[in-house]
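Notes continue from the previous slide.

Worked example: a multi-chain complex. Inputs as given:
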Amino acid sequence: MSDIIIAIISTIGALSIFFAALGILRMPDFYLRLSVTVKASTLGVGLLLLCAAIIFPDISVTTKAIAIIFFLFITSPIAAHMIGRASYFSNTPLWKGTIIDELEGMYNKKTHKLESDPEKADSPKGPEEDNIADTEEETK
Amino acid sequence: MTLEIYFDYFILPLLTLSIILVFFRLLKGPHVVDRVVALDLIITIGIGIITVFTIRSNQKVLLDVAIILALIAFLGTVAFSYYIEKRNDE
């Protein structure tokens, strides 16, 4: 019985890691790649660690596995947010098909603060110099 | 089919294939942030591979390595993003 549960959990985990890897290769844009990768890989590794916690009848392995899951769930969103913010500041282009970029003009480029009013942010931008890529090749 | 055969012939090859796919992105990535995310994902999949290997070889000690790798991946990504943000100011 527990073999079947372990097989199901590990299959879901390995498949979601595989979809994360496929997504980071195939998605058209850095931000879409980031969004696919972080969630799916955290879920996959968490499920594989859960398998290890179920298989070993030992309290030390269970503690370690739960500690790693907890640590991953805390740190990976923080890391993803920081790298996404850094990439937005370094003008990484968005995908060509992006309809709206709601953050545009909201960041103060000097102090790196987020304002709710674009007037206060004081980073004037013409309509032609937005972050959205013109061709598919820029973000590929 | 036992669980051992299933782990050896399905789970581990799938994880290895995922690492190869992410490695293409690490080589290709048009910007430096793509490479940072690919490196982070490679380390995360590495934690998964260590876990499966722990199950298969019955060596519980190997899970300590997974803890250290999780720490290093987080610190690496945070340091990279900090310096990318700083570099942009100059």
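Summary box: The two ends of chain B are 60 Å apart (CA to CA). Chain B touches chain A through 50 residues (CB under 8 Å).
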